[in-house]
């Protein structure tokens, strides 16, 4: 993601349909016991009473009838007073919001903070990062795990990241990705593995391509296969027009999908390069577009059969890559989502027969002239699960007004099963503090408030993580920017005071999640067990929600009533929550699976 630029629901007949599920279970158990006893008396006892063969000469004894006894009934367990309260989702409820922050590793922007950190330092730093996510009630971590052809995890295809090791031939101190996924899930959050698909180098370098490649790891794909590398603006990237490159990048991503328990694959906006600028023969600074110097002309000649427009061919290359990747992910793990975070402007209406946004053609875009990703098509064909456009402008900016773009993207996802989240430029609150358009104590909150007017927008992500921590060393350089960042992050905390669940992906078939079992209330302590007893990954609870309801309002759709979120732990048999006030509140607990589908709430009765 590092970017240089800026009820329609059916109602039941009763307002609160209580299902005495646990009582029903006990009654079923009682009926089963009686049936078993009947079968025993009918089948087993007669066999036992049959005359046995007697040894010769043995006298036959007349059975003596025993004195009559009063039958003693087997004591029955008391019926569980817990009832199941169905959760009828209200899509407009603030209970369902995607909330994330990008955590880049490139240039050591966020994590790791510097190369060469020890395993202990890295683990402590990541746990502290998660503390900040929890402070803001965020529910998804987007960690850059493959920043530029290297990896934060042991890989058969990509070398260890220099941002971890400090040198191209270094080794990882441990599996950062495995640790990060595990720790994130312990907090009940999603983990989105962020990949930069085609980038090879980040910084400009005027040295020859051969010299630059020699500075990379000896295991780097680009160094091993220099014929697959293109150069633009003194940076290197893999050629998306080559089938072998597409397969290599897809295999690199699927390696992670297969080996790690991630929740989503997240791709940023770097496919083909963005435009740049350079000086012409007269010394003037002029725009510089990829393809101006015929960088991929040979590839087009070899693989562009059937295309007369090289730009359309490039869009077909990225489309084919996403289509194959999407199919590959779903074949491996149907529940793993694919998300794309493109530049905020898809294309301009003036250049796309009215399909694009009403933005000036002088603004950058990603359809016609640069990057060459038809994300609108990807949404319409539902190749992805969510799209997270980077709308890194504020209201009133001529190049790309925030409201214009947010509304345009809302229209794009309309009628599809693709979730729309918005990427916000939190960093500009600090960087652009002198701009009248970015002055204010609630810039981000104003954008969030506008999002509420567009039901299609189901959440937000912020670039980047460190801007959620205004005390970061970096922010000492600009006192005014720091003051602005402090005020805006405080406002953001207030906006996210209540917890939220990530919206369910509409592309996945709904699953019934088993509610918690053995829910008990004793001496101010709520206890329960995991009711999952199957082998279905989608039914397995990933976390539990403990509700604290006012006695007069049992409403699971109100996030204010979520008292606690507990991550499911396979090593934990019984979960307990202490110091509860049953005199004032009524308590319940539900189970939520990895796709954030929620079971009915196991509701305890009111205290007498």
TrEMBL record:
The chain crosses the membrane at residues 35-53. The keyword Membrane applies. Pfam families: GHL10. Residues 98-433 form the Glycosyl hydrolase-like domain. Keywords: Membrane, Signal, Transmembrane, Transmembrane helix. Residues 1-25, 57-79 are annotated as: Disordered. Signal peptide: none annotated. It comes from the Bacteria. The keyword rRNA-binding does not apply. Residues 9-20 have a biased composition (Low complexity). This is Family 10 glycosylhydrolase. It comes from Proteiniclasticum sediminis.
């Amino acid at each position: 993601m590092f970017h240089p630029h800026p009820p329609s629901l059916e109602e039941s007949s009763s307002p609160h349909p209580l299902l005495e599920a646990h009582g029903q279970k006990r009654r079923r158990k009682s009926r089963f016991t009686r049936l078993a006893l009947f079968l025993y008396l009918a089948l087993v006892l007669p066999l036992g009473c049959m005359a046995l063969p007697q040894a010769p000469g043995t006298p036959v004894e007349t059975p003596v009838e025993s004195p009559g006894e009063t039958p003693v009934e087997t004591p029955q367990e008391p019926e569980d007073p817990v009832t199941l309260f169905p959760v009828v989702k209200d899509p407009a409820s603030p209970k369902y919001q995607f909330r994330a922050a990008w955590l880049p590793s490139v240039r050591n922007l966020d994590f790791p903070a510097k190369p060469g950190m020890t395993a202990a330092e890295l683990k402590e730093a990541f746990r502290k990062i998660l503390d900040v996510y929890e402070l803001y009630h965020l529910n998804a971590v987007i960690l850059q795990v493959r920043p530029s052809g290297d990896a934060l995890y042991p890989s058969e295809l990509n070398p260890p990241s220099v941002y971890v090791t400090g040198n191209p031939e270094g080794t990882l101190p441990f599996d950062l990705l495995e640790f990060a996924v595990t720790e994130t899930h312990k907090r009940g959050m999603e983990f989105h593995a962020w990949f930069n698909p085609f980038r090879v180098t980040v910084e400009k370098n005027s040295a020859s391509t051969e010299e630059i490649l020699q500075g990379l790891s000896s295991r780097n794909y680009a160094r091993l296969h220099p014929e697959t590398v293109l150069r633009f603006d003194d940076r290197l990237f893999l050629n998306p027009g080559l089938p072998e490159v597409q397969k290599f990048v897809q295999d690199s991503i699927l390696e992670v999908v297969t080996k790690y328990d991630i929740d989503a694959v997240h791709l940023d906006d770097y496919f083909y390069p963005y435009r740049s600028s350079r000086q012409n023969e007269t010394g003037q600074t002029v725009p510089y577009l990829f393809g101006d110097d015929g960088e991929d002309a040979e590839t087009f000649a070899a693989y562009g059969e059937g295309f007369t427009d090289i730009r359309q061919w490039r869009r077909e290359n990225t489309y084919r890559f996403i289509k194959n990747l999407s199919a590959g992910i779903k074949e491996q793990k149907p529940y793993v989502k694919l998300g794309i975070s493109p530049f905020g402007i898809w294309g301009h209406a003036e250049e796309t027969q009215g399909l694009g946004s009403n933005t000036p053609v002088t603004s950058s875009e990603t359809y016609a002239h640069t990057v060459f990703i038809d994300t609108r098509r990807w949404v319409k064909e539902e190749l992805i699960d969510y799209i997270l456009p980077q709308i890194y402008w504020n209201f009133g900016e001529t190049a790309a007004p925030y409201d214009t773009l947010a509304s345009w993207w809302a229209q794009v996802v309309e009628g599809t099963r693709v979730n729309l989240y918005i990427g916000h430029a939190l960093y500009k609150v600090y960087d652009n503090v002198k701009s009248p358009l970015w002055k204010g104590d609630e810039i981000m909150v104003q954008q969030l408030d506008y999002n509420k007017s567009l039901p299609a927008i189901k959440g937000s992500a912020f670039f980047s993580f460190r801007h959620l921590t205004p005390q970061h060393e970096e922010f000492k350089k600009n006192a005014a920017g720091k003051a602005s960042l402090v005020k805006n992050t405080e406002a953001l905390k207030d906006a996210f005071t209540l917890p939220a669940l990530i919206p369910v992906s509409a592309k996945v078939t709904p699953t019934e999640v088993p509610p918690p079992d053995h829910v008990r209330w004793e001496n101010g302590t709520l206890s329960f067990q995991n009711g999952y007893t199957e082998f279905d990954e989608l039914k397995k609870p990933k976390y539990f929600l403990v509700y604290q309801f006012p006695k007069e309002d049992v409403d699971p759709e109100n996030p204010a009533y979520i008292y606690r979120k507990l991550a499911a732990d396979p090593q934990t048999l019984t979960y307990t929550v202490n110091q509860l006030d049953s005199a004032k509140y009524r308590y319940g607990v539900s189970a939520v699976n990895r796709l954030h589908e929620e079971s009915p709430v196991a509701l305890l009765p009111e205290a007498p």
